[in-house]
Amino acid sequence: MANDSVVATFAKLVEYIANKFMRGEVTLADLLNLDDDEIEVIFLMGHYLYNYGKYQPSLDVFSVLTLYKPFVSRYWRAAGAANQALKKFNEAIVAYDMALTTNLNDAISYTYRGEAKISAGLENEGVEDLKMAVQVGGNQPYYTQWVQRSKTLLSVRGLESE
Hints:
By secondary structure, the chain is mainly alpha-helical. It has two domains: 1-69, no CATH class; 87-162, Tetratricopeptide repeat domain (Serine Threonine Protein Phosphatase 5, Tetratricopeptide repeat, Alpha Horseshoe). 73% of the residues lie in helices and 0% in strands. The protein is built from eight helices and no strands. Helix 1 packs across helix 2, helix 2 packs antiparallel against helix 3 (55-68) and helix 5 runs antiparallel to helix 6. It is elongated, with a radius of gyration of 17 Å.
C-alpha cells in the first residue's frame, strides 16, 4: 500500500514539474545544482514530455542533462530519441554516438542509431549498427526487445543477423 502511494505521489510530482516547465514557470537554469534524486525527477519529466509528443521540450531537458552529467549514456540516448522524433537524424546519430562512448555494449543505442542512419540515407552504416545490436545484445536478456527489433529490420531488408 505504502509503495503505491509513493509511486502515485512521485508520478504527480513529475507531472507537476513538467506542466510548470511547459508553461514557462520553471526554466532549465532553475534546475541546476540538484542531487541525484532531483536529477532523476528531471529525467522523468523529459520522458513525460517525450511520451506526450512534446519532443522539443523533452530534447531541451535531455540536452541539459547531457551537459550536467555527460557520462550518463541514457541521457544521450534520450536526446537521440527526441532528435529522431523531430526527424533530426544527424543530431540523433551524434547523440547515440555519445551514448555508446560510455557503454559500448548498449544494444538499444545501436538499434536506434541504426534506424537513424537508415533514415538519414546511410543504409550500409545503419545495417552495420543493427547487426552490432544483435551481436552485443544477443546473450543479454535485458536487450531482447531491441535485438528482436534489429533482427526484424534486417530481415525486412533481406539480410541475416549474424
